[in-house]
Amino acid sequence: MTAPRTPPPLSAHQRVASKDIGVLHDTVEPFAVGHDLHAREPDVPLDGLVNAVSVGAVTLVWVRYGGGGVIVDTPPTEGHFAMCAPIAPMGVEYRATKSRDTAGGSLVLSHDEAMRMTPDPLLGCLVIATSTGRLADHLAGQLGRRHTPPLRFHSVDGPAILPSSIVERTWRHVCDVLDHVTAEEEGQLHPLAARNLEESLLTAVLLGLPHTATERLAEAPPRAPHHLAGAIREWIEAHHDRPIGVVDIATAVGIGVRQLQTICQDQWGLTPTQLLRGVRLDHARTALIEARPGPRTVTDVAGAAGYVHMSRFAAHYRQRFGETPTQTLRRSGQLV
């Protein structure tokens, strides 16, 4: 018996299925970077599929061309960032230097050199794209200051803060979350969840791929001013219901993310993410206690706390309060 195929990434966000190379190109390009397509075997019809979605300023597109496959030519990306994650080994050629390679894992498209790629016709490739400006903004939030030289990513292996596997683990997690957005939500993520996913991808890229700010990011952060602990907590309490992330908290109190991490660890023994999650769960409990039971009450409260997976919300809630959200809601209904 043939084992069932694993659904491709972003299956819940299918854009087009087509045998037309022009249709496939025009569907992919808005989510990736400028490129040209050429059929590897013009006499063999394609059997293409494109799944694509945007999360904040980051776009993700998975494409399988099928048939005889295609050759993808990309110009220099210049001020854009684009990374290919081929599901199977992919041939790569750097057009100016004529160097060739076989890519697997994470391949950053060159900022200054045209490239030619031959993705696997059946397994395809995921492309993650954004602007280097958005990445530079996220980097500034991590450092607590601007990194003056232009942010550029190296298209070949080099030193990075963490192993490149963090990038694949992160995009797979993000794709899994996106594929589990329920039909009732009409494919729309709550702004809190979308912001969290966007920042997860940006952070993984900065930590797991080599770039011109890697050394600066590896430097020890300045000593954290611990008197800001109260301001951090007050700001989170005042803004917990907005689509904020760790970078927003650090920016609001005038420090870098790494300084924020030090303060939260020393003051509460928590990461900033755990602190923010705890505040949101506390407010979620209050909302459940005050709500009237209904078919979507728990789902709505979970969404307002930034959760997409109800099982994850229930697990975090039970860990914090010793009961499930439904049990809290049921008790509150009995008191009405």
Task: Describe it.
This protein has 336 residues and is an alpha+beta fold. Helices cover 41% and strands 18% of the residues. It contains twelve helices and eleven strands. A six-stranded antiparallel β-sheet has the order 1-3-4-11-6-9. A five-stranded antiparallel β-sheet has the order 2-5-10-7-8, with helices on one face. β7 (90-94) and β8 (99-103) form a beta hairpin. α3 (165-178) runs antiparallel to α4, α6 packs across α7 and α9 (272-290) packs antiparallel against α10. The longest helix has 19 residues, at 272-290. The radius of gyration is 22 Å and the shape is flat. It starts with 13 loop residues before the first strand and ends with a helix. Mean pLDDT is 87; it is low at 182-186.
Question: In what range is the share of β-strand residues?
Answer: 15-25%
User: Mind summarizing the main beta sheet?
Assistant: 6 strands, antiparallel
Oligomeric state, counting identical vs distinct chains: single chain
Please work out how many helical segments DSSP would assign: 12
Series of H and E elements: EHEEEEEEEEEEHHHHHHHHHHH
List segments where confidence is low: pLDDT < 50 over at least 5 consecutive residues: 182-186
Query: Largest sheet, order of strands side by side?
Result: 1-3-4-11-6-9
Class from helix and strand fractions: alpha+beta
Q: Approximately how much helix is present in the residues? A: 40-55%
Distance between the termini: 56 Å
Please report the total strand number as a whole number. Answer: 11
> What's the Cα radius of gyration?
22 Å
Shape estimate? flat
